[in-house]
Amino acid sequence: MRTFDAIVIGSGQGGSPLAKQLAKHGLRTAIVEKRWPGGTCVNDGCTPTKTMIADARVAYVVKHSYDHGVDVRSFSVDLERIKARKNKVVASFRAGTEKGLTNTEGLELICGNAVFTGPKVLEITLTDGSKDTITAEKIFINTGAKPMVPGIPGLDTINWCDSTSILDVDKIPAHLVVIGASYIALEMGQLFRRLGSEVTILEHGKRFLAKEDEDIANAVQGILTEEGITILLDTQVTQVSQSAPEKLSITLHNGTVLEASHLLLATGRTPQAKPLQPQLTGLALDEHGYIPVNDALETNVPGIYALGDVKPGPAFTHVSYNDYIILLNNLFNGKQQSVKDRPLLYCMFTDPELGRVGLTEQDARKQNIPIKVATLPMSHSARGIETGETKGIMKAIVHADTLEILGASVLGASGGEVMTVLQMAMAGHINAPQLREMMFAHPLFSESLNNLFQGITDH
Ligand SMILES: Cc1cc2nc3c(=O)[nH]c(=O)nc-3n(C[C@H](O)[C@H](O)[C@H](O)COP(=O)(O)OP(=O)(O)OC[C@H]3O[C@@H](n4cnc5c(N)ncnc54)[C@H](O)[C@@H]3O)c2cc1C
Ligand SMILES: NC(=O)c1ccc[n+]([C@@H]2O[C@H](COP(=O)([O-])OP(=O)(O)OC[C@H]3O[C@@H](n4cnc5c(N)ncnc54)[C@H](O)[C@@H]3O)[C@@H](O)[C@H]2O)c1
């Protein structure tokens, strides 16, 4: 058995930079990865999807080019070129991560699958099938999550795609049916619609994007529907079957049968914790299979920490990276940072984007916080009108007494970037009256924040 000072399991968005820093701080460190350096974000998640979404946007812009006085009479989509560009970007990000790990002195990258076999003891099945056993006082679990497969009758008898395999589909689906209507479903649904697929999205919940305020969710739904995507809510899939390649039948609770060429499962993700045999090191899992942690990311076993999607809570790349920052500061920089102090934020990469930070109106009202709400349609933004990007809405939630910004939803072109302006304002306690009068360069989308906060009176 080989002894290290620290072991990181999984080379995701938190684990990779953490492993490098542990080694740089003088700890003899191993990082174990069973698949590819970089984890989900680089290999299956953000990087490939945002690359392909950009290509689909080009198709959309070309299709609507005559609105801008540019006459492109016909065009075609070359899926092989789209995949090749995606693969090139992914390969470069993956290689960059690998190089960063292997070039760090005091850090060993072990390629293999790790399982606990005893207290703080890990057995690694290496890629050549041989075994390695390692131990360390400090262990950091960054094993992420994988696509969840729902228990739908017939699923084991048909070909279906998840968010990884859909990226390498060999032709543009004639009719893509997507189960689920959240980030993956909407981003992928719009991507393939823009490449030419008929797209139907099935959600079992009664409300579309139930975590968002209704006005925002309705606006997203309207935009996607206008592009020709069918969205069915309150819909259960009761049976699936396949009669030939690309001939799928999807039966709904009301007896309707949809004929599809491809089925994408986008029903959430499952943490990769149970396969670690956590019980053999005394680690507890919660009822959903996540590894619970305290506010400083330590598990119930002292010296074992979890970061990223394998722990409960929002599952985003920036959260995993921020987990790493918190661990770094607490371990080496004498700080006592907590995951409790950070705002919820994300950007859904539909087009236009939905940038979100802090509280929604429905959350604030549930918590009985006195609030004022400001909204501004993107059709009132000078920049939006000039660029022809008038879809969407800006919305801010402001504390009624302090006039501090508690949250914002920015659905619009550059919505994620404008949301980030508001995130910075929130962090720096810049309040609504100040933003109303702040000078922004004309004519940026962010300049519309002046107008948005006109809607907030001081008393
Ligand atoms: C299609 C898609 C699109 C997404 N888009 C976005 C986006 O735009 N923005 C955003 O913020 N988030 C996005 N996400 C979510 C984001 O990818 C994840 O939140 C993020 O990658 C989580 O990183 P992580 O650090 O938890 O671990 P991961 O990146 O999941 O890495 C975990 C690593 O651990 C390895 N591993 C697991 N078990 C073992 C084991 N037993 N032994 C050895 N190695 C192991 C895995 O192989 C993997 O490489 C997207 C996700 C998907 C699926
Ligand atoms: N832009 C981004 O930041 C981004 C993009 C993609 C993915 N992600 C991350 O990836 C994770 C997974 O995303 P996701 O969209 O798969 O999952 P999700 O958990 O966000 O949503 C799953 C959706 O599927 C629905 N659903 C579940 N089972 C169903 C069934 N049997 N029939 C019909 N509907 C069903 C749920 O009600 C829900 O709306 C998320 O946690 C997200 O954080 C983030």
Task: Give a structural overview.
This protein has 459 residues and is an alpha/beta fold. The protein folds into 3 domains: 2-147 and 270-333, FAD/NAD(P)-binding domain; 165-267, FAD/NAD(P)-binding domain; 345-453, FAD/NAD-linked reductase, C-terminal dimerisation domain (Enolase-like, domain 1). It has 12 helices and 20 strands. It has helices spanning 15-24, 39-43, 46-63, 79-102, 183-195, 214-226, 317-332, 361-366, 382-387, 415-427, 432-437, 448-452, and strands at residues 2-9, 29-33, 107-118, 121-126, 131-141, 145-147, 175-179, 198-202, 230-232, 237-244, 247-252, 257-260, 262-265, 269-271, 304-306, 345-348, 353-358, 371-377, 393-399, 405-412. Strands 1-2-3-4-5 form a 5-stranded mixed β-barrel. A 5-stranded antiparallel beta sheet has the order 16-17-20-19-18, sandwiched between helices. Strand 4 and strand 5 (131-141) form a beta hairpin. The structure holds flavin-adenine dinucleotide (FAD) and nicotinamide-adenine-dinucleotide. Nicotinamide-adenine-dinucleotide is lined by residues 150, 179-185, 187, 202-205, 237, 266-269, 315-316, 346-349.
